[in-house]
Specification:
The structure is a single chain. With 463 residues, the chain is an alpha/beta fold. The chain folds into two domains: 124 residues, 3-Layer(aba) Sandwich (Leucine Aminopeptidase, subunit E, domain 1); 317 residues, Aminopeptidase. Helices cover 34% and strands 21% of the residues. It contains 16 helices and 20 strands. The strands form four sheets. Strands 7, 8, 9, 10, 11, 14, 15, 16 and 18 form a nine-stranded mixed sheet that branches. It has a six-stranded mixed sheet with strand order 1-6-5-2-4-3, with helices on both faces. Strands 12-13-17 form a three-stranded mixed sheet, with helices on one face. A hairpin with a 5-residue loop joins β3 and β4. α6 runs antiparallel to α11. It is elongated. It starts with 7 loop residues before the first strand and ends with a helix.
């Protein structure tokens, strides 16, 4: 795995100022410079446009300060982490933001600087050495680093191709995390899944030579109980309803839910939050073989509900169902699942928003507010009760893939909710991928919703 690049300078060291200049306020900023620096900035055509910057030299030509364009309020609303590209664009050295008076904006841009230092170099290249940022007094450095490190773990897990990230390797990643934070971990594998009543996890994964398993991590012995459930389909061929090649190309990311809950768990444990954390990951590979489950099969579940299989490519909700049923048996204060579950969610909101479902409006409101503070956008979707009949095939209790193609994300969420009786359940239908590079977000694996959840936890759980 690649290491996150913690590009923060220790406090007290001399740091080159980055003067953050909104568009329209360049006259004031330029007036504060020496004559040669002002003329240099004017010659560069600096206007404060978002994303622009000018390195200011001393009389010997060495860089001593930076002007960074901060654009307009409208342009900033369209671009998260607008100053993050500076982390890799500036020459090596220590820097500090000046002129960012809004604490929330300062925290966002500082986090963006850290996130921009990520690089996945397991197979090619070497880690870059970004410029270092000196944190302004009052910022919570531990929280920023925990968020960046958790995101780096998520990105690494998703970016790793399936030949090196199967169920066994995902288990190893969870064990490594548990070891770092003195968490307990147990794993149920292969035939033991049947013996301990996880028939759906076993059925989805047993066609692969890479044996299915259920990973169960626990941490903390006081406070409210939070259970995270992440979809760990390490590769999805679609099973016998085989995906076309273009749809299979990104299926290494089908364990993005597992990667995201592990990243969130790392954030929680690194910050030492006072809660009882449980992480459940059904880890499987959905393969094509003689033992693969078939369209038309009717399968039992841990909860006792029967499921008619109308598409073997709707396997994620099956493995989650058994894990959610287990989570529900302890009646934790909050159950939260994350999964790269449906293409319908991407069609609805695109790759940048994390759609979520909530059984309580108060929890949804807390998440929306946390998402704004964390610069981690989410969008609430409805558990629309009139669609319940769409997941009831008549021949079995549930249908894993209702025909017609309507409301695919909602019907998947309703399916999962059938396995949770606890009153407080949140479900995220994430994409887990950045299709093109953006500030602080390189192309590739991406965590979605984790920082929003972390930010909302005090309100969600009374921490």
């Amino acid at each position: 795995m690649s290491d996150p690049l913690y590009s923060f300078a220790p406090p007290g060291v001399p740091a080159r100022p980055i003067h953050v200049v909104p568009e329209g306020e360049t006259d004031t900023a330029l007036a504060s410079l020496s004559g040669p620096q002002r003329r240099w900035a004017e010659a560069q055509g600096f206007t404060g446009k978002l994303g622009s910057h000018v390195i200011l030299p001393d009389p010997e030509g060495a860089p001593v300060a930076v002007l960074a364009g901060y654009g307009t309020a409208e342009s900033r609303a369209r671009q998260r982490f607008a100053l993050a590209p500076l982390a890799t664009a500036l020459p090596a050295g220590d820097y500090a933001f000046h002129g960012l008076d809004d604490p929330a904006a300062l925290a966002e841009q500082s986090l963006g600087w850290l996130l921009a230092g990520y690089g996945f170099t397991r197979y090619k290249g070497t880690p870059a050495t970004p410029a270092r940022l000196q944190l302004a007094p009052g910022l919570d450095a531990a929280r920023l680093i925990a968020c960046a490190a958790g995101e780096a773990l998520t990105r690494d897990l998703i970016n790793t191709p399936a030949n090196d990230m199967g169920p066994e390797e995902l288990e190893a990643a969870a064990r490594s995390l548990a070891s770092r934070f003195a968490a307990d971990i147990t794993v149920i594998r292969d035939q033991d899944l049947l013996a301990q009543n996880f028939p759906l996890i076993h059925t989805v994964g047993h066609a692969s030579d890479r044996r299915p398993r259920l990973i169960d991590l626990r941490w903390g012995d006081a406070g409210p109980a939070l259970t995270l459930v992440g979809k760990g389909v390490c590769f999805d061929t679609g099973g016998l309803n085989l995906k076309p090649g273009v749809s299979m190309a990104l299926m290494k990311k089908d364990m993005g839910g597992a990667a995201t809950v592990l990243g969130l768990a790392q954030m929680i444990m690194a910050l030492g939050l006072r809660l009882r954390l449980r992480v459940l990951i059904p880890a499987v590979e959905n393969s094509v073989a003689g033992g693969a489950f078939r369209p038309g099969d009717i399968l039992p579940s841990r909860k006792g509900l029967t499921v008619e299989i109308n598409n073997t490519d709707a396997e994620g909700r099956l493995v989650l169902a058994d894990a959610l049923a287990l989570a529900d048996e302890e009646s934790p204060d909050l159950i939260l699942s994350m999964a790269t579950l449906t293409g319908a969610a991407r069609v609805a909101v695109g790759p940048d928003l994390a759609p979520f479902y909530a059984t309580r409006p108060e929890d949804a409101a807390a998440l929306r507010a946390g998402a704004v503070r964390a610069a981690d956008p989410v969008w609430e979707m409805p558990f629309h009760a009139p669609y319940e009949k769409m997941i009831e095939p008549g021949i079995a209790d549930l249908d894993n893939a209702p025909s017609g193609g309507f409301a695919g994300s909602i019907t998947a969420a309703l399916f999962l909710r059938r396995f949770v009786e606890a009153p407080r359940y949140l479900h995220f239908d994430i994409y887990g991928w950045q299709p093109s590079a953006a500030p602080a977000r390189p192309k590739g694996g991406a965590g979605q919703g984790a920082r929003a959840v972390l930010e909302a936890l005090p309100e969600l759980l009374g921490l």
